[in-house]
Amino acid sequence: MSLFNVYPLFDITPVKAKDVYVYDENNTEYLDLYGGHAVISIGHSHPKYVKNISDQVAKMGFYSNSIQNPMQVELANKLEEISGCKDYELFLCNSGAEANENALKLASFHTDKKKVIAFKNGFHGRTSAAVAATDNPKIIAPINAQQEVEILELGDLVGLEKALAKNDVCAVIIEFIQGVGGLDESTTAFYETADKLCKKYNTCFIADEVQSGFGRTGDFFAFQKFNVTPDIISIAKGMGNGFPVGGILIHPSIKASFGLLGTTFGGNHLACAATLTVLDVIKEEKLMENVKDISTYFIEKSKEIPQLKNLKGRGLMLGLEFDFPIAELRKNLIYNHKIFTGSAKNPNLIRILPSLTVQKKHIDVFFEALKSELNS
Ligand SMILES: Cc1ncc(COP(=O)(O)O)c(C=O)c1O
């Protein structure tokens, strides 16, 4: 059987990884400034992570959500403490798309409405409602197109209020920093007014923190730079440092009832072991402070690149925008300099999404490589 060919692959085969490095079968070392798409948060193969997951699988890897699982309770408490999101409740699932799917479904149950507002260049996943709320017609199949979704320009408050005033919108879903789209952000006034408008019209404000959450921006959540109170916060990626896990934080105004949401694998013991370890390491190793320090350093170093048109993003969710397509440059960084970076929907933008443990010396290596490519 061959693989269903949906991914254009680089011809590299990583077989092991350690902190910010991955190694191929010939032991060639690659500097990973992509983090497997913003997933690696505490570093590849962190010793505590390896130990805790190994110990857990030796004891019990999985049981379904029909029994008591104190690890989920511990996880919810630790998440509340580190995020500062008081009194929210936690529902665990397995991926970012699933988190947003549950968020949108819950918003619809809660408000008894069904239309969704999303934004231009937003990305929310590939499942039914999540993909319909994603601004990319190429990945929306006819079966998904039945969802009622309106895509607005990021920052369009007039359009937002006009849509909400029709009183048929269950959710406004937004990335406070767009990931896949290319690191665009709107203004404080937009986010804070959008939050107020959602409250005025009984619409759930969903913060998609799948990529930007878990400390990546230097705050635990990207929305925390603003005075907003999302009704639902979706999480995944950095949460499990590679273990597939996702979830939603649910404001106490939304009430649970038996059977409202459910999953077989979500919140299993191994996923909890992975996520608890991530939370402990973020705290113990002061990784959110490291994010801020390294981000400041990166921004300074970027001033040495005259070809750079724009530096976008926050923390370690950064985008280097040029006035030419970066596909060739990115390929050269990989093959000539052994450095992984990311791309975006914006073809002129390189994305930087390293482990939150990355150090200044790694940033130096990147900028030397970038300079040598841009000047060659
Ligand atoms: C902001 C955002 N939301 C949702 C998703 C979907 O997550 P997953 O690929 O885990 O389904 C992604 C993935 O890139 C994302 O960046």
What can you see in these coordinates?
This protein is of the alpha/beta class and 376 residues long. The chain folds into 2 domains: 14-46 and 286-375, Alpha-Beta Complex (Aspartate Aminotransferase, domain 1); 48-284, Type I PLP-dependent aspartate aminotransferase-like (Major domain) (Aspartate Aminotransferase, domain 2). 35% of the residues lie in helices and 17% in strands. The chain contains 11 helices and 14 strands. It has helices at residues 35-38, 47-59, 70-83, 96-111, 128-132, 157-164, 188-200, 269-284, 287-302, 327-337, 360-375, and strands at 14-18, 21-24, 29-32, 89-93, 115-119, 149-152, 169-174, 204-208, 232-235, 246-250, 310-314, 317-321, 339-340, 349-352. The strands form 3 sheets. A 7-stranded mixed beta sheet has the order 4-10-9-8-7-5-6, with helices on both faces. Strands 1-2-3-13 form a 4-stranded mixed beta sheet. Strands 11-12-14 form a 3-stranded antiparallel beta sheet, with helices on one face. A hairpin with a 4-residue loop joins strand 2 (21-24) and strand 3. Helix 3 packs parallel to helix 8, helix 6 runs parallel beside helix 7 and helix 10 crosses helix 11. The protein is globular and about 60 Å long. The protein starts with 13 loop residues before the first strand and ends with a helix. The model has no long low-confidence stretch (mean pLDDT 97). The site of pyridoxal-5'-phosphate (PLP) has 14 residues, from helix 4. It comes from Polaribacter haliotis. This is Aspartate aminotransferase family protein. Pfam families: Aminotran_3. Its cofactor is pyridoxal 5'-phosphate. InterPro entries: Aminotrans_3 (IPR005814), Aminotrans_3_PPA_site (IPR049704), Class-III_PLP-dep_AT (IPR050103), PyrdxlP-dep_Trfase (IPR015424), PyrdxlP-dep_Trfase_major (IPR015421), PyrdxlP-dep_Trfase_small (IPR015422).
